Amino acid sequence: MKLHVLTLISVLLLAVVVGCSSSDQAAVDEAVSVTLLAAQPATTTATRTPVPTDTPTPEATAVPTSVPAPRPEPTAVPTPTPEPTATSVPTLEPTATNVPTPEPTATPTENEIVTVTTSTNLIGIEGSEIILEGVQAKTLSDVGVLEAWARWISDEEIQQISINQETGSVSGSHVYSQAGEYTARVWVHGETGDKGWMDIVVEVLPKIPSSNVLTTIDSTGDAGLLAFSSITIGVDGLGLISYFDATNTDLKVAHCDDTNCTSATNTTLDSTGRVGSLSSITIGADGLGLISHWDETNDNLKVAHCDDTNCTSATNTTLDSTGSVGSLSSITIGADGLGLISYFDDTNDNLKVAHCDNTNCTSATTSTIVSIGIGMMPSITIGTDDLGLISYYDSKTDDLKVAHCDNTNCTSAKTTTLDSTGDVGRNASMTIGADGLGLISYYDKNNENLKVAHCDNTACTSVTTTTIDSTGIVGGYSSSTIGADGLGLISYVDMTNETLKVAHCDNTNCTSATTFTLDLPGAFFVSSITIGADGLGLISYVDMTNGDLKVLHCHNTFCSP
């Protein structure tokens, strides 16, 4: 694979010879020549190879017409000095020892190489050729470039790169073996003796897992745009995804046609007003899908109960219409086999829970469990004690908190602050680990990192917190599950590079994790992850650039290359 990046950078390189008299200039030139000559290895001929400095070309010397009379016991015959020409002057490839690299200065002085830092980046993939093409490198007097080199990595040798004399631009390429951020430094020498550096930041992204299966499930209009898609596995072993069709403002569902979800059958379940945004899906005790979602038109909490395994139709019910309620809901099935839904009461800034009265959830009992602070972005699961466990973000204190239900219906709960270090807890996602304890992924806004909190006990009254990805702005819109290996698997967005990433926990407590990039740069938003019938990860997410709903099927437990 070859990634070509066309970058146009206008770099102004200051002429290094400014305001010197002829005698002063001669002294400076002589000193520079002596310094550079001393850095060269010893040569076996009498002719010194010129270096790319601003030392003036010496006057041509006359070529002797005959060999001088021999001296007593001569050891060698002097070699005539040829008259230098533009084509006969050899170009010396500079090395780290013979090309000075001073620190950048605001006001360059005489004979100082000027470092120019550009704001334009190159982006590529590890193991693939990254091309620097057509970079303008003209001097102050607007003349062409005589020589150009590049140091792609700070501790590597400088390599000569090509020059287009007509356009005054330079081009080159390099293959980076590892992902990371590098500074490529390009050195240029102008025809009039002007010279300088220009620094270009190169962002090398991890290799995309080629064996993972990427599929666009819905590209009709703005499918999934501005909404939380949510994925689960049906009793048929196939993926079932709820999402919002922003073009038609409807609640839709996609039923995967195979384990890898390489295709799906899409169905509109609710089209009454603007409905379906911020949905959450699970499978009920009857083996049928149950979806909580927000009726934005009426500011109500609604639920859709699928009529069949494929969810080709559904029964829609309004569960709570008291004030502005229902946004940012999360659903699970309780120990009693009935739906349990956590959601936000925007009117009163409360966290509420709806406990379904029957399998179809045609009615529910609602309770306010947090009335002090704001219980935003909740995520609910059932602990090993058969009671609900809800993580949420308190936007008044900017903390990550948890509510542990006191009973099966969750008519009340005990709350605990889990992380109060800065602004933390947004976009939290909770699951139960193989050790029977809660595992929560969430966003650290202050440090722009992905963090994980592992509960120390069943009620999660204390936790161990760990930052597992701090490369760039990462961790937004995370979703967590437990893989077939018993370790956490977390999907999330890398907002710096606009890519989808996954973190595979290295241990049960997830005190460290291995991260991978799953999709090429684009604009991705809100992922949801589950484990398929084959024991491999299945992730639904939104491609904001094209307004598409996508699914990625991992080809191994790590979801790695």
Structural notes for this entry:
The chain is mainly beta. It has 2 domains: 1-11 and 92-205, Immunoglobulins (Immunoglobulin-like, Sandwich), CATH 2.60.40.10; 213-553, Neuraminidase. It is 3% helix and 47% strand. The protein has one helix spanning 22-38; strands at 2-6, 114-125, 129-136, 145-151, 159-160, 162-164, 169-175, 180-190, 195-205, 213-218, 230-233, 239-245, 250-256, 264-270, 275-283, 289-295, 300-306, 314-320, 325-333, 339-345, 350-356, 364-370, 375-382, 388-394, 399-405, 413-419, 424-432, 438-444, 449-455, 463-469, 474-482, 488-494, 499-505, 513-517, 524-531, 537-543, 548-553. The strands form 9 sheets. Strands 2-9-8-4-5 form a 5-stranded mixed beta sheet, with no helix packed on it. A hairpin with a 4-residue loop joins strand 16 and strand 17 (300-306).
What would the keywords be for this entry?
single chain; 561 residues; mainly beta; Immunoglobulin-like; Neuraminidase; 2 domains; five-stranded mixed sheet; four-stranded mixed sheet; 37 strands; elongated; disordered N terminus
